[in-house]
Design the sequence.
């Protein structure tokens, strides 16, 4: 736990005045950072020893009881030397679904950010090669949003059929 | 798509004369499953690679939001189907972490044995096909012979060879029997001989060594910043193993070493996997000899664990207990929290980030797939290698497209 308080001090001294919400659940430390300061927060944590980005994901909070923000973007960080972990959360709302890319900090963020865009439609600005990762480029919806039905909207049936002569 | 890939900005403009683009996959024997690479070639040298994935995307994470914690285990099986039970163990490790469940010692040991059997299972296939892609068909057959025995061990415990669906929240579908223990012991006895045969065919095979040494190098810095984990990271000198660093299941009681190499090339990754098989065998031997007795399901309020099948069919209490666990409106509540639980799967750090809204099913369950992050490093590894090295590098990072695309 001493290491986590250290992270807290580092973050709070660098981002003086920004409201950071710390919480913990079963020994996992989390910090919520406002979206406007996420780039500075990630860079600070990287410099403070969080050298690996384990994962980036998002949660659509549309149907979550008591949630006020629409999307929660989650960064799971790890210090590969000490084994310490930290979860950084930030919130974005429509119509401003934008966050700065974490690629300059960890290049491993590349595909993870593309997948978040693919599934939730959150744009990462400054990403070197920003486009869909898993779904076809012509796909119009973002399927992991809660307002997207589990059955889909019939996109698959309406895919254009390319004949051999046209290809 | 290939047209705009040619205009990739990181290609040197002066170099562009005479380059050509090669489409590799989606159906190609060396991709093993379905993935596509668009390679930029200068003669025979690969100067750029753009992976194109998603052919096997099946919306597993969306399904996690409609299936409960026990039902979803049948889906996670199908992610990395080379080591199905490792996925189940990882999934229920995360769920049990969220619910705050401490397993019984017997369950921990059985899961540990299966986790390690799955590591051998996965590494046998990965190393076997890696050799096969480079032209050595015999070693692959030796590896598959051993995999067959592990399938039989799975079948004896769960009734299924492949998609076992064996773990449950707080326990296991069935307890293991004495003849299962005998099968595991027999496997431990016969495996070293088979391993020796396999290793003898490959480890000092000059063709294999020359085609993998110095090929597809991933430096330690790149492995860390590029989110590599598991054997890929350990082959680059990142000394990290969740079994040792964040012990779960029974790993705290067992003695084993973390296998690392320094080269970061295909041969180092191959070596790490070969060494890990022996360590896994050591763990299995210890665990099976010290297998505790007792129940496999946790007890307590009775809400968490499913009752034994004989109880369900023979007593009214057992039937009621089962009903209370299975009916969606009577299941155990979960804390309204988020939790990330990770295990050291054969391929690397396999984690699940679960957000719960209080029900017995996930509001959102994110898989942290090691294949995805390793494949994103592929274009970095292959740059400057020859076209024929593509098969070697692909084989050495063990991409499973079902896990890659989910």
Sequence:
């Amino acid at each position: 736990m001493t290491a986590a308080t250290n992270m807290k001090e580092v973050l709070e001294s660098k981002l003086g005045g920004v409201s950071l919400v710390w919480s913990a659940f079963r020994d996992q430390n989390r910090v919520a950072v406002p979206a406007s300061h996420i780039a500075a927060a990630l860079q600070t944590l990287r410099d403070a020893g969080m050298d690996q980005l384990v994962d980036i994901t998002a949660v659509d909070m549309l149907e979550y009881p008591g949630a006020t923000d629409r999307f929660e973007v989650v960064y799971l960080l790890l210090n590969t030397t000490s084994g310490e972990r930290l979860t950084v959360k930030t919130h974005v709302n429509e119509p401003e679904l934008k966050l700065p890319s974490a690629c300059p900090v960890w290049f491993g963020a590349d595909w993870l950010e593309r997948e978040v865009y693919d599934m939730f439609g959150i744009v990462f600005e400054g990403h070197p090669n920003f486009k869909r990762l898993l779904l076809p480029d012509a796909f119009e919806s973002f399927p992991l949003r809660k307002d997207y039905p589990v059955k889909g909207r019939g996109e698959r049936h309406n895919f254009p059929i390319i004949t051999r002569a046209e290809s | 798509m290939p047209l705009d890939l040619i205009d990739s900005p990181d290609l040197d403009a002066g170099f562009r004369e005479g380059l050509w683009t090669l489409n590799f996959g989606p159906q190609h024997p060396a991709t093993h499953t379905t993935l596509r690479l668009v390679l930029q070639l200068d003669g025979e040298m690969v100067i750029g690679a753009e992976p194109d994935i998603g052919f096997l995307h099946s919306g597993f994470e969306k399904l996690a939001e409609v299936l409960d914690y026990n039902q979803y285990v049948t889906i996670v099986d199908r992610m990395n189907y080379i080591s199905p039970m490792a996925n189940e163990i990882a999934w229920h490790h995360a769920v049990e972490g969220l619910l705050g469940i401490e397993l019984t010692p017997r369950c921990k040991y059985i899961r540990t044995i299966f986790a390690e059997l799955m590591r051998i299972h996965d590494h046998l296939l990965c190393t076997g096909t890696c050799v096969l892609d480079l032209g050595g068909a015999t070693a692959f057959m030796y590896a598959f012979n051993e995999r067959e025995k592990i399938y039989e061990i799975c079948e004896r415990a769960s009734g299924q060879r492949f998609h076992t669906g064996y773990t449950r929240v707080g326990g296991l579908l069935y307890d293991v029997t004495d003849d299962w223990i005998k099968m595991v012991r027999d496997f431990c006895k016969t495996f070293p001989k088979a391993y020796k045969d396999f290793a003898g065919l490959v480890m000092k095979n000059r063709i294999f060594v020359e085609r993998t040494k110095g090929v597809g190098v991933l430096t330690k810095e790149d492995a860390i910043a590029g989110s590599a984990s598991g054997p890929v990271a350990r082959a680059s000198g990142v000394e990290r193993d969740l079994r040792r660093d964040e012990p779960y299941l029974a790993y705290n009681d067992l003695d084993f070493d973390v296998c690392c190499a320094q080269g970061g090339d295909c041969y180092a990754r191959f070596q790490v996997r070969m060494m890990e098989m022996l360590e896994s065998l050591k763990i299995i031997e210890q665990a099976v000899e010290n297998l505790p007795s007792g129940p496999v399901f946790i007890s307590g309020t009775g809400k968490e664990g499913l009752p034994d099948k004989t109880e369900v069919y023979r007593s009214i209490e057992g039937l009621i207990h089962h009903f209370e666990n299975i009916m969606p409106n009577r299941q155990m509540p979960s804390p309204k929290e988020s939790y990330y639980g990770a295990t050291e799967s054969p391929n690397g750090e396999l984690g699940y980030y679960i957000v719960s809204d209080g029900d017995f099913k996930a509001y959102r369950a994110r898989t942290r797939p090691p294949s995805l992050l390793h494949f994103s490093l592929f274009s970095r590894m292959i740059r400057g290698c020859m076209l024929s090295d593509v098969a070697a590098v692909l084989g050495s990072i063990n991409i499973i497209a079902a896990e890659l695309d989910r």
